[in-house]
Amino acid sequence: MAPRLNQMFSLALVAGVGVYTGVKFFEPMVIEQLEKDGNLRKDIAVPKYDSEGELVGPDGLTDSQRWEVVRKENNLPSLADITKREEKNSTNPDDKKAA
């Protein structure tokens, strides 16, 4: 009985994750098409998306823009800065041979 229950639980989990990610992926496209067709309801608040499909908040900023503001306020390095620093401090033996 346990293997059958395990299979059913796994199937339900995969189906749930599939539906959730599918809705998140197709939501901006469906909203855009409903707006074009004039079938979008006006009495329900509709989330706004930028040209890349990223959710725009009430302040007009996307999540990545909000994180940049937080990084600057707290003097945190960006991922690109960290990567450059790691490459600079790397002790790769192949780099020493080329020099």
Secondary structure tally, helices: 4
- Mean pLDDT, to the nearest integer, reads 83
Order of helices and strands: HEEHHH
Shape, per Cα inertia axes: flat
Largest sheet: 2 strands, antiparallel
Structural class: mainly alpha
Low-pLDDT stretches are none
The quaternary structure here is single chain
User: Total strand count, please?
Assistant: 2
- Radius of gyration using CA atoms only: 23 Å
> Order of strands across the biggest sheet?
1-2
Supply the number of structural domains.
2
- How far apart are the first and last residues' alpha carbons, in Å? 65 Å
Q: Helix coverage percent of residues? A: 55-70%
Strand percentage:
under 5%
Biased composition (Basic and acidic residues): 82-99
Region (Disordered): 78-99
